[in-house]
Amino acid sequence: MFGNNKTKETGKGSSSTTSFSSSHSFNSLVQGTLIEGDVHSKNDFRVDGTIKGSLKCEAKVVIGPTGAVEGQIHCDNAVVEGRFEGGLHVSGLLTIKEKARVNGEVRYGKLVVQPGAVLIGDVRLGGQKTNPVKSNPLVEKEEKGADKKPIAGNSPVQKESAG
Predict the structure, then answer these.
(1) Residue 137 to residue 149: CA distance in whole angstroms
(2) Is 134 part of any domain?
(3) pLDDT digits (tens, 9 = 90+) for 114-149
(4) 3-class SS at 23?
(5) Within a domain: 91
(6) Which pTM does this prediction carry?
(7) Residue 47 to residues 9, 13, 62, 144, Cα–Cα distance (Å)
């Protein structure tokens, strides 16, 4: 009635089996468990243990309060409550909770950082590389034209001296 329940009838009686769609499936790494290596998942993945390596997930990754990941994560969305160190690449929403500790290279589509969270490293929207100020064409244009007189309305406020 409420899900995708299927009843299979056999000659000796009936038994009920439940099938879940992949949108409701998830993986969970429990506290006290360590994985060293690469993990690939098409479904949500919750980490309450420790991963040392890479995690590639086509859905949401949750690092629980006791969870820790040292390495690389590539996923659609992520919530960090525990500890992360390495490269975190989230194409959608990255939420860093109040007791989380994130250190490394972080790329995201959208970012929410709750008060109390620790976020250290190279943090960029969408993984876009920014140019240093010296190679910014707008700055170069202003520097080259520095000897010209400012145009009215485009100049900083100037004090007039009475004298």
Answers:
(1) 20
(2) no
(3) 999 999 999 999 855 444 444 444 444 444 444 544
(4) helix
(5) yes
(6) 0.65
(7) 38, 40, 6, 53
